[in-house]
Design a protein that fits this description.
Length: 358
């Protein structure tokens, strides 16, 4: 009996290791797709940008990443074994007037999938058509909840930062019976080297084009990942066009900051005032003795800043009645939770709710 239990535990551990391995690889692919789309958007008209019901922008990258991740996970684990919660649906892309937009999404997906071998994954035998891309996107319709097993994907978190050429994140997590099992957070514009954070993002983008590396991957962006029970979180550089993913050799362990004096601590908050009350957080920061200027970044990049020790505090006080889909929290949360214990919302609400909203 004891031997059977050990064998079962060993089998589950191997499965988890494969799931994390695939998740890291597919987020690397998603970051590559996003970088190409972002480069195409900058300095051009907004013909590849649409709006959601809440007026937040959605781009070719949102649909492209969702289709790519859905296709890869289904290929690696079997479509019947994969349930996904994600943000985008196919309603807009299915309209007659969206033919050009759909074509752009399909092209972005195929350009990404053809590079799958570079990331240690399998490409499709032939290019996907519009129907197959729409099917991959529409598969991301899991209802979530505290029971069952499902992936949670935010294709492009911080889309406003994305379309402005600034920070954004690609986030993926696996949840089982209400527990986050693993999380991966891709931050294509968040440098591995902390010193680059002192430069404005536009200057940083310019330097990344003027000063390419002699060999290997330049540390322009990073991918963070963690697994429940490991006690560690890791970071590796985003792979660029000239690189190839070396999963183990490129990764390094990360830890939260050891600073506990508010006078020397840095706090993160959202860039947009519409997403958080800057005046309230400034008053709160002053009251507890925080003296440094806040680190304001878009998206779940804030979780990366906390997890790897670039900042010590994250404060966000959303407007009343605001609801957030699962797609915007668990992946970055796991990286921090594995390193620094656990936390909850200011009202001590549980993280996993009955549906797809917090």
């Amino acid at each position: 009996m004891e031997m059977e239990m050990e064998m079962e535990m060993g089998k589950k551990k191997r499965e988890r290791s494969k799931e994390l391995d695939v998740a890291v690889r597919v987020v690397q692919m998603a970051c590559s797709l996003c970088q190409r789309v972002q480069d195409g958007l900058l300095g051009r008209s907004a013909d590849q940008i649409d709006s959601k019901d809440d007026d937040s922008p959605v781009t070719v990258a949102d649909w492209g990443v969702q289709a790519t991740v859905s296709w890869i996970l289904s290929r690696c684990f079997g479509s019947e074994n994969v349930a996904i919660i994600a943000e985008e649906d196919v309603q807009t892309l299915s309209k007659k007037e969206a033919t050009g937009l759909l074509e752009s999404v399909v092209n972005a997906v195929n350009e990404c999938l053809i590079e799958a071998p570079k990331y240690g994954l399998e490409s499709p035998s032939k290019a996907l058509g519009s129907r197959e891309v729409l099917e991959a996107i529409s598969k991301c319709n899991s209802g979530g909840g505290p029971k069952g097993r499902y992936w949670v994907l935010d294709p492009v978190d911080g889309t406003l930062g994305f379309v402005r050429g600034d920070q954004y994140a690609v986030a993926l997590a696996l949840i089982e019976d209400g527990e986050v099992i693993l999380g991966v957070l891709g931050c294509p514009n968040y440098p591995m080297n902390k010193q680059w954070l002192s430069y404005h993002q536009r200057y940083y983008r310019l330097m990344s084009k003027l000063s390419p590396p002699a060999v290997g991957s330049w540390e322009k962006g990073c991918v963070l990942y963690a697994q429940r029970g490991s006690g560690e979180a890791w970071m590796q550089p985003v792979i660029h066009d000239y690189g190839k993913l070396e999963q183990n050799s490129s990764a390094r362990a990360i830890k939260v900051s050891t600073i506990d004096d508010p006078a020397f601590a840095t706090f993160c908050e959202p860039v947009e005032k519409a997403n958080s009350s800057h005046s309230f957080t400034a008053g709160l920061a002053e009251s507890v003795g925080l003296r440094k200027q806040p680190l304001r970044v878009y998206s779940m990049v804030k979780y990366a800043a906390i997890a790897r020790g670039d900042a010590e505090i994250f404060m966000k006080f959303a407007r009343a009645g605001y609801k957030r889909r699962y797609g915007t929290m668990p992946r970055g949360w796991l990286s921090y939770k594995r390193l620094a214990g656990w936390s909850q919302t200011q009202e001590a609400a549980p993280w996993i709710s009955p549906g797809v909203y917090f």
